[in-house]
Write a structure and sequence with these properties.
Blueprint (H helix, E strand, L loop, with lengths): L2 E6 L1 H5 L12 E2 L2 E2 H4 L2 H6 L1 H17 L4 H9 L4 E6 L5 H5 L4 E3 L2 E8 L6 E3 L17 E5 L9 H9 L3 E5 L21 E4 L12 E4 L3 H17 L3
Parallel strand pairs: 1-4, 1-9, 4-5, 9-10, 10-11
Antiparallel strand pairs: 2-3, 6-7, 6-8
Helix pairs in contact: 5-8
Length: 233
């Protein structure tokens, strides 16, 4: 089976009712990003940060995968599909996708502030002060904050380089290092970009823009790729 790698961003989650990372006013749910998504914000006010992600988690529990997520799942019948997502929600997993790499962490997991290898599932939607790891340190959201390294980036580079097809969906391609993954695609690998707002990507001969939302654009692209895989049978 040919390998499809999907790079997904906030746009696909927005179609399921989850707000994108930063509103036009520069705030995230009325909070300064520096206050809720940086190590310094955590050091200054851990209660604010915990409550902020508790509310994000509470919203995400009720969110359902949309037609775009389901189209990517459908492709697994005909391709080896890996999704590299910048999103911290679990909508790809809810849709049934089997291979999902979270570049920026996972909303429904926590990790130790002493040993970052100690990662736990969050039961329900609430993570509180006093919730501790097995070594006795406070648990924090398992999110890659601004100023922190992206641990899964090396894996993402290898996956992208091995792709036979790259699909980019719901991302402005403006946030690094994730946006740099396109540079690791092998020459002549087909790249499909699904987004109503065409990202600023330098011209490539193998680049196809589908200027639609994920729900319609991915569904149409999946149909085309399935025809390609089956010869129209």
């Amino acid at each position: 089976m040919k390998k499809i790698v999907v790079l997904s961003g906030a746009g696909i989650s927005a179609e399921s009712g989850l707000k994108t990372f930063r509103d036009s006013n520069g705030l995230w749910e009325n909070h300064r990003v520096e206050d809720v998504a940086t190590p310094q914000g955590w050091a200054n006010d851990p209660d604010l940060v915990l409550e902020f992600y508790n509310q994000r988690r509470k919203q995400a529990i009720d969110a359902k995968p949309n037609a775009g997520h389901l189209a990517l799942k459908q492709l697994e019948k005909f391709y080896d599909v890996t999704i590299i997502t910048q999103n911290v929600d679990n909508l790809h997993e809810k849709a049934g996708s089997k291979k999902v790499v979270h570049l920026h962490g996972e909303l429904f997991k926590s990790r130790s502030t002493r040993d970052e290898t100690l990662v736990y599932d969050v039961k329900g939607w609430e993570l509180k002060r006093g919730d501790r790891c097995e070594k006795g340190s406070q648990l924090r959201p398992h999110i890659v904050w601004f100023g922190e390294a992206v641990p899964m980036m090396e894996d993402a580079v290898e996956l992208t380089h091995a792709a036979d097809i790259l699909i980019i969906v719901g991302t402005s391609m403006a946030v690094y290092p994730a946006a740099g993954l396109i540079d690791y695609v092998r020459p002549r690998t087909p790249i499909y970009v699904v987004d109503p707002n065409v990202p600023d990507i330098r011209p490539r001969t193998n680049l196809t823009f589908i200027p639609e939302p994920a729900t319609t654009g991915l569904s149409r692209l999946a149909e085309q790729l399935i025809v390609n895989a089956t010869g129209g049978v």
